[in-house]
Amino acid sequence: MRVLATALLTVLLVGGLAAQNTDGKGMIGFRGGANMYFSEYQKYVTGVGGDVVIRYAFTRVFSLGLMGGYEALKADYDGKESVPFKGYVRLDGIPLSLVGWFNLSPGSRVTPLLYFGVGGMAYRRTAWTKAQIGPEKNNATIHIPVGLELDFFLGKNVSFTLDLGARVMDEWTDFARVDKTMPDAYFTAKAGLDFYIGSSGSDDNDGDGLTNGEEERLETNPNQPDTDKDGSRDGDEVRKYATDPKVADTDADGLSDGEEVMQTKTDPRKADTDGDGLKDADEVKKYKTDPLRADTDGDGLTDAEEIMIYNTDPLKGDTDGDTLTDGDEVKKYKTDPNHADTDGGSVNDNFEIGRGSNPLDAADDVPKVEKVEKVVKVGEAMVLEGITFRTGSAEILPESAGTLETALKTLKAYPNIVVEVRGHTDNVGSRETNARLSQRRAESVRNWLVNRGVEPARLTAMGMGPDYPVALNTTAEGRAKNRRIEFVRLK
Questions:
Q1: What percent of the chain has pLDDT over 70?
Q2: So what CATH class is 369-489?
Q3: Where are the alpha helices (DSSP H) in 237-385?
Q4: Which of 77, 260, 374, 376 is the most exposed place for a label (fewest CB within 10 A)?
């Protein structure tokens, strides 16, 4: 008993016990320990014994199997009872019983089991001199085992076992029958190791969050945590995401369930998470749009509308660069979001809308040209109102387009006119700086016209600097009037 107690204490101190289920598993166990024989011979002597146990757990609660082994049962005469043999008696027995075990706490780290069974024991009865007692050399008795077993699981397939029980036999095992009401019996205390074979339906072999029994019902692989190899564990697919653990791409959108859950954050059960008409995979891999936003560029058109209907860029709010969003062009102004000048009249859509002309009618892009030959005489200067530049720069600003288009149309309508483009500035800054700036601005206007078809020989550029003001430079209004572009007809 001291050995058994020491072994049990060692297990508890070492720790590392693991909760296990045994249903669906076979087991073979080996135990050894001590017996105490109770019979008409009332002087009790400890004997040794050992069991081999084979059983199978049909459910989490019930197991059935065989228990057999070897038992040495010893007793001695104490002088108080009338027994036929006055002295030491020993039984060497080989029991074999059919036994049922009932698990009182399935899945626990320390599992208690009650057991009972029925069988027989063949034995030989001798005295301390090894002389045979009784007429028969080989005897047999009924053998009924009952008891409590404690299993301390050290791992998935092994447990340390402590067995405390009793074995009931008939009254003649000791060759004496003084008390006719009580059968002979012995109490046993054994310890050993049990080894489990197979897998339990309650186990999770692959650690994926599903028991083996659940995986069997779902037809997933109990030894592979990710049956469909999509990057998500089977248990997460079933319990967390409600996806199919046997299909890598549950919604058939071209992204695996694992990619949707862990990378794109899209819904693995919906092929089009944002409902814009494009599959999630096409958005991610083909169009580079956001599968979580129906309108990636925020222009008022869904990604699918831009790609499939209007052929605009779903990543650019203003595809044609006319400063109108694609959505406004399509839904509000009915202009072409792929062309900055829908009507082809030489003025972009946004400028026309801003000034109140019709971006769908080319006829109103540039005002009709009157007979400028009669209006503008040779040598006379005409100020082009509305041509503006970025401050301190020769860069023409977009709002100048209308005036320049008018000048362009006039020059094309009268191919005999020759013009000098003159640039003027206010007096802010040095005269040299303003002279250079006025020359560059005059050249910018000339280049704009030449690039649109006016013969270069018909245009010259001249920077006049601040020397020819038309208003006082002492006020902001005056300085604004002095910063101007003039056309002077030379021919």
A1: 90
A2: alpha beta
A3: 257-259, 280-281, 303-304, 326-327, 349-355, 372-375
A4: 374
